[in-house]
Amino acid sequence: GIIVLFLAILYGRFRVTKRQKRIIETASRKTNDSIQYAERIQQSILPSMGYIENCLNEFYILYKPKDIVSGDFYWVYKQKNGNILIALADCTGHGVPGAFMSMIGTALLNEIVIENGVTKVNTILDTIRTHMISSFVQEGSSYHIRDGMDITLIDLHVKKRKLSFSGAGQQFYLLRDGTFIEVKGNYYPVGYYFGREAPFDIKEMEVIPGDQLYLFTDGIIDQFGGDNDKKFSFKRLKEVILKGAHLPMHEQNKILDEAIISWKGDNAQ
Rounded to a whole number, what is the distance in angstroms from the first to the last CA of the chain? Predict the structure, then answer.
């Protein structure tokens, strides 16, 4: 009798567990389907490879979202005068929250630049910050959403062979004759942070034939790996770039991707 009772209880628990498993699997599948669809939406907002090819002769993009959708995004726009605006941004958060922020950032760039015709890079960042602060502050509330983004924004003057740069919490590399020139933006990001009332700086540089520009977010340099589980670092990034700098851009993409995968090993991205 005890054995029969025990088996009955065990069978009951098995049925409950099985039912719970089905519920969890269904919920997980729905969530995953939603995120997969969100990925397609985010991909549709990014500039197409065809459009970028019409703007830039030689380029590569290494885009590896951590959680299907990404808080990082890139943006390119060719102006009527032939100048090319290039943005690379890293929004607060990963996964879905970061993806929401990236879509807001893309929408603001489209509105400010394409619709309103603002092309001065530091003014663009000032305007994005103003929009973000006003959008995220709820009237009558003392609570402020402190989300924002780090961004590199470059206006490439093709005919004049110069560029204008403004950055928030990011920098980029200009590789010239085997030597890196590191160009830093302001240390504060775009958003409701300290320095939120300080204007963004603008820097101008000459561009000569053979120069190569490298824009990147901190996902690469902060990747843990190697024998001692250390960060990939700026130093290793420059070493990898130099290794393939003489090659076509699609080959450089492959070299950098392989270097990061090898460095990461079994570590989480």
Answer: 55
pTM, two decimals, is: 0.83
Residue indicated by tokens 């990461």: 264
Contact 116, 77 (CB under 8 A): no
Separation between Cα atoms, residue 43 and residue 47, nearest integer Å: 8
- 16: which 2 tokens? 């409950």
CA–CA distances in Å: residue 158 to residues 22, 83, 183, 199, 209: 58, 6, 19, 26, 11
At which residue do the structure tokens 């100048």 appear?
Answer: 83
pLDDT in tens, 143-157: 555 668 899 999 999
User: Residue 7 has which token pair?
Assistant: 């088996």
Q: Say if residues 144 and 136 touch (Cβ distance below 8 Å).
A: yes
Which residue, among 202, 200, 103, 111, has the nearest Cα to 147 in the 3D structure? 103
**DSSP state at residue 112:** I
Instruction: List, for residues 52-108, the tens digit of each pLDDT value.
Output: 999 998 999 999 988 788 889 999 999 999 999 999 999 887 677 788 888 889 999
| CA 199/CA 197 separation, integer angstroms | 6
